[in-house]
Amino acid sequence: MGILLLEQPLNAAAAHAEFLVEHGHHGAVAAFTGVVRSESGGVDYLYLDWYPGMTEASIRAIADAAKARFDIREVAVLHRCGRVEAGEPVVFVAAASEHRRAAFEAVDYMMDRLKSEAALWKREVGDGVDRWVEPRGEDAVSLKRWS
Amino acid sequence: MAKVEVLFFGRMADVAGARRKTCDAVRLLTLRESFFGADVAAVRMSVNQVQVFADQALNDGDEVAFFSVFSGG
Questions:
Q1: A interface with B, Cβ–Cβ below 8 Å
Q2: Is B63 within the bounds of a domain?
Q3: Measured between beta carbons, which residues in chain A are less than 8 angstroms from residue B7?
Q4: In Å, what is the CA distance from A58 to each residue of A42, A52, A62, A118?
Q5: From first to last of its 147 residues, what are the pLDDT tens digits of chain A?
Q6: Is B57 exposed, middle or buried (0-12, 13-18, 19+ CB in 10 A)?
Q7: CB-nearest partner of B71 from A34, A91, A135
Q8: If I label A69, which of A105, B1, B11, B53 is the partner at 20 to 30 A Cα–Cα?
Q9: Can you tell me the distance from the alpha carbon of B48 to that of A56, in angstroms, rounded to the nearest whole number?
Q10: A102 is in which domain, residue-wise?
Q11: How do residues B45-64 score in pLDDT, each as one tens digit?
């Protein structure tokens, strides 16, 4: 499974099941799925702009850093790009380890870095809304937890 | 004259009014100024998919990109 950037819908349940089959034997699997919020109906979809090659490399660097930092055996990062409707999964991250804490922490770490460092540009589109999303201060605060 | 491919992502694609252009291989900051003038505080740059932070010469066939700060997933 590894690292995948997907222009098509992401089936998080299938990804989780596949990851469990392939890596569950390690004993601990943690997974996270991020879903596009409608922001009380104001957002119809996100458009995630991406730079083919650079975007995958930025995600791979984060996954590699997690493998180097935590006692984990395998990770998966499946990230959407292009148009993602409200209610659809936008990211799936999983880690397999022999120990639950390492798996939890690796997923938490990868998500914090993905939110700030993945080479993606996010646009919110909806009822009277069409804007590029600027990096959020709270994401920078989350990232500092790991420095 | 030597040419470079210039790509634009995120908000900078809107500012430049383009996603891709072929341009003469002038110096990097000269190229940036041609699209964004002096309003460059929010413009990030890469050459051949490696982010750069200073001026440099460009070579024939280089791929340059201008983009806004990553907003993550």
A1: 34, 48-51, 53-54, 57-58, 79-80, 90-91, 114-122, 132-135, 139
A2: yes
A3: 51
A4: 30, 11, 7, 5
A5: 799 999 999 999 999 999 999 999 999 999 999 999 887 778 999 999 999 999 999 999 999 999 999 999 999 999 999 999 999 999 999 999 999 999 999 999 999 999 989 999 999 999 888 999 987 777 778 888 888
A6: exposed
A7: A135
A8: B53
A9: 14
A10: 3-138
A11: 999 999 999 999 999 999 99
Beta bridge partners, B73, equal none
| Residue B54 is assigned to a structural domain of this protein | yes
B27 belongs to a structural domain: yes
> Which amino acid belongs to residue B72?
G
Q: What is the ipTM of this complex?
A: 0.93
Contact (CB<8Å) B73/A50: no
Task: Kindly state the percentage of chain B with pLDDT values over 90.
Answer: 88
The distance of Cα A113 from the centroid of its chain, to the nearest Å, equals 9
> For residue A147, is it within any domain?
no
H or E segment at A134? none
Rounded Cα distance, A81 and A122, in Å: 9
> In whole angstroms, what is the distance from residue A116 CA to residue A137 CA?
10
Task: Give the pTM.
Answer: 0.93
